Amino acid sequence: VLFIFSNGNWTIPIATWIAPVFLLAFLRHSSNPRSLILLFVLIIVSTKFMLAGIIPNDLGGLTYILTFYYAVIWFFPYCIHSIISHRIPGFKSTLVLPVAGVTAEYLNTIFFGSWSSLAYTQYGDLALMQICSITGIWGISFLILWFASVIDWCWSRQNIWDSMRSRAWIYILTLFLVLFYGGIRLMFCTGVSTTENIVSFTPTEAIDQFILNMKNAGFSSSRKMAKENRTELNNYLEQAYADIFQKMESITNEKTSLVLWPEATISVLEEKESAIIEKGKKFAHENNTFLIMAYYLLPKLNSSQPEENKLCLINSDGEIEFEYLKAYPVPGSPHKAGDKVIPFAETSMGTIGSVICYDMDFTPFINQAGRKKIDIMLVPAWDWEAINPLHAQMAVFRCIENGFSMVRQTGEGLSIASDPAGRVLSSIDHFTSKEYSMVSSVPNKRCSTIYALTGDLFAWLCISVFIVFILLVYRKKHND
Questions:
Q1: Rounded Cα gap, residues 392 and 414, in angstroms
Q2: Which of 25-34, 92-101, 218-227 is predicted with the least confidence, judged by mean pLDDT?
């Protein structure tokens, strides 16, 4: 029961720490293959509930494949612990579970981003979260699983208190140092630099009217209408553009440094792209502000090219600083993938970078921002209710890891601004607020981090230790 609340839809942070303790106790008292099979079945069933909606139901068979896949990730460390931990002598055996868990989480990042990581369950514990500036999220996942393993190791000894005194102090001291470091970093990473006023908004009324116009014309998507009635679609889009720019005029003032749209705010026909960008240039120049336009580019009629999920940064002189395609389309998306290079621009506001929504889930990719010393990361995003507010909270961990401030404007989700320590500067929830524009006062200087230099080194250290354990057990078994 605790496992169901350890991650996913109904996360209770303390359950994430306690559930593994009882799972290990179950495996220790029922040390046979059938126990592992039973645990795997229970985790599969639990995963279906824990990730319901987070994995969209409209993916068909892929929904079940992904559910099984994440169940395997969560089961993997317990399986490895059950098989080899008793073959590792002494207190070192407590490291099997955490290094196996980090290995599974990191390898998952290569394919589907950092979804399912235990670290995200601890969002809000700022002191603990600061360890991400050294180890990335892997340090938190390691501590959670190591806690369970240490408790189980002590529990399995005849004299539990002697065991705790002789070895458990190693874990207690480690956790104390982590929290002490977190407190110190929160004191010194205060964001006392000058700030920039960033206005972000979702033009909900314009989008809703555009969708209604399409439905009245008998179409459910702009992609289909672009192929069958392009002229009428263009008329609807022109009306939407006018509404969007009118909304921007109403929320912008002389203090505004930058205006940010959410992901794929509106469709743009390829042959009309230059015209809409010219509108953006004119707006930015006349209002002396930067502008990030995020839109969904529909290719020319009869083109073999896929759609593009892209953004364009325009400076206050009305010039394009960079354009960017979403690097990691979500599974099942037809969008063209970008070149996986984070763009940045040196500006009066500091170094500005930008990626789109799902891109923020890939820790090795976003580590580019740390290496490029980006000060402010601007993230157009679009979520859905089942992943709200989790997906926005996940992005905050990238701030701590790489030392940048962030504004994430989200259609149908939590819009959030954060400083380099993960402190929330402003937020608006699409589902609980009637106001869809947000003004954020964002520090324009980064906080340096070790993670920005070393990247996922801690994860690779865990993978290395995991491989060493496997080789040691294999060698011992071979010798026996």
A1: 6
A2: 25-34
449 class by beta-carbon count within 10 Å (0-12 exposed, 13-18 middle, 19+ buried): buried
- 280 Cβ contact partners less than 8 Å away, ≥ 6 residues apart: 291, 293, 312, 314
- CB of 400 within 8 A of CB of 133? yes
56-74: burial string, b at 16+ Cβ within 10 Å, e else? beeeeeebeebbebbbbbb
- Does domain 195-446 fall under CATH 3.20.20.140? My reply is no
Residue 424, strand partner residues:
418
Over residues 196-249, the pLDDT tens digits come to: 999 999 999 999 999 999 999 999 999 999 999 999 999 999 999 999 999 999
Check if the beta carbon of residue 325 is closer than 8 Å to that of residue 338. Answer: yes
Nearest to 96 by CA among 181, 180, 28: 28
Cα(407)–Cα(424) distance, integer angstroms: 10
For residues 208 and 240, is the Cβ–Cβ distance under 8 A? no
**Alpha-carbon torsion (3, 146, 75, 33), positive or negative:** negative
The letter for the amino acid at 193 is S
CA–CA distance, 309 with 328 (Å, rounded to integer): 10
The domain locations on the chain are 2-189+456-479, 195-446
Q: Using a cut of 0.90, tell me whether the model's pTM lies above it.
A: yes
Condensed to tens digits (0 to 9), the pLDDT of residues 242-297 reads 999 999 999 999 999 999 999 999 999 999 999 999 999 999 999 999 999 999 99
Residue 241 tokens read as 């553009």
What distance in Å separates the CA atoms of residue 206 and residue 243, rounded to the nearest whole number? 6
Query: What letters, b where the CB count within 10 A reaches 16 and e where it falls short, cover 346-358?
Result: ebebbbbbbbbbb
What pLDDT, on the 0 to 100 scale, is given for residue 418? Answer: 98
